[in-house]
What does this fold into?
Amino acid sequence: MSSVPVAVVTGSNKGIGLAIVRALCKQFPGDVYLTSRDPGRGQAAVAQLQQEGLRPLFHQLDIDDLQSIRALRDFLKEKYGGLNVLVNNAGIAFKVHDTTPFAVQAEVTLKTNFFGTRNVCTELLPLMKPYGRVVNVSSMVSSSALGGCSQELQQKFRSDTITEEELVQLMTKFVEDTKKSVHEKEGWPNTAYGVSKIGVTVLSRIQARLLNEERKGDHILLNACCPGWVRTDMAGPKATKSPDEGAETPVYLALLPSSADAPHGQFVSNKTVRPW
Ligand code: NAP
It folds into this structure.
């Protein structure tokens, strides 16, 4: 078994994920895994970074596929005996003018952004080594979508005692409510991406709390963040930040020094803790 530290970035064949891998290859003292659901796209991205003189490693990972997540889990357990840095970056967004029915957009978006991310956490968080760092890439849109929720939902999503099961029930209810076209009446905002990212931010708050309760003394720090508005296939060419600039906050959180005991369980943008 290797004693080399290891970092994994989900959805890192392009965009912000690729830029996070680039920065970690330069700054993280260990093996950095670029992962992609499509091995061809993943290997092409590895080759691109090799051209830049960097040495990322590759592993397949489709966060929609539990078998794929478990194969990565088993690989990490066997080769490294755990994991030091996990960046949950993989995500999807329908374009604003996409005419796919809203209920389908809700189901597909929640499947990857919330349920897929949660499945990765369920399988990989138990592998986190002491002083591990977990970064869940959410979005400022989670904050604005929270503001668009009914007072009752806002209270639940801001609660310091909400459980993962309750959050899963709420995310499932959103998808069901869109199918019955009652989501607005039920207090939801009209954004599937926004609700999926509320899920990611609240999940991070819950997971940080569980780490405090169950692994106190292991000094693991887990946070949600917004990378900013970044020029990628998702956000388009008008966005203000380059992918490398978008990687800065996630990488800052991934490389918090072992002496740090904060931020933890926070929503961070531009390296600054934001109110939730
Ligand atoms: P992007 O260029 O579209 O890249 C998304 C990445 O996620 C791609 O590598 C994609 O792989 C991967 N992915 C999607 N579904 C996946 C799955 N089921 N399993 C594994 N990988 C999957 O988007 P981006 O702008 O870099 O976004 C990265 C993250 O930042 C997302 O979580 C996004 O919500 C968040 N974010 C972005 C912005 C922005 O302005 N760009 C702002 C706030 C938050 P494929 O190539 O196979 O599709």
